[in-house]
Please model this.
Amino acid sequence: QSVLTQPPSVSAAPGQKVTISCSENSSNIGNNYVSWYQQLPGTAPKLLIYDNNKRPSGIPDRFSGSKSGTSATLGITGLQTGDEADYYCGTWDSSLTDVFFGGGTRLTVL
Amino acid sequence: QITLKESGPTLVKPTQTLTLTCTFSGFSLTTSGVGMGWIRQPPGKALEWLALIYWDDDKRYSPSLKSRLTITKDTSKNQVVLTMTNLDPVDTATYYCAHGVMGSPDAFDVWGPGTMVTVSS
Model:
């Protein structure tokens, strides 16, 4: 069974840059696209990045995505207190029968 | 503008069957490439994907829950329904329906607000 591993928490100061990693114990990330979601407290997740590095309309370019091998990374620049949230990566297995998410990373903006 | 809203019982007894309805607007589930999914989140825990249904009635299920899940659509009512059998307290979670990004099974660009379901006797 594939597992997406994210760090439980990251932190950085306002205005700084932070990266959140998403690694996999199999080859699904390597073979498929990765998405990223932001979940503010008490709200539904919001799509930030899909297809590794595409931003939906309305998502600022402070958010970026990249992928290398079996790992993906979400980058956030110009951190704001409003960015404090849980962030999840997602992908699907090669046979397109299973979508799965990482365990989530809590971002604290100090 | 795409909107989604989940509805269903807030409290279910163990072993019972849960039926959740997602009512949507702003798009048609008859349009080629469109898909919708269900995702849940136990309190304080991570997201868990449950099921997907596409415009052509292709359906996908989480392998670990496949035997308990059924996803259907009613295009005349703009609704997608998820049924989960044999509920257990570990199924207590917020259940979300979401609109899929075309061509990206893992990407959901619009989500409903979610509905909290508690499984308890």
Observations:
- The interface with chain B takes residues 32-35, 37, 43-47, 50-51, 56, 88, 90-92, 96-104 of chain A (CB under 8 Å).
- The first helix of chain A runs from residue 28 to 31.
- The first strand of chain A starts at residue 4 and ends at 5.
- The mean pLDDT of chain A is 91.
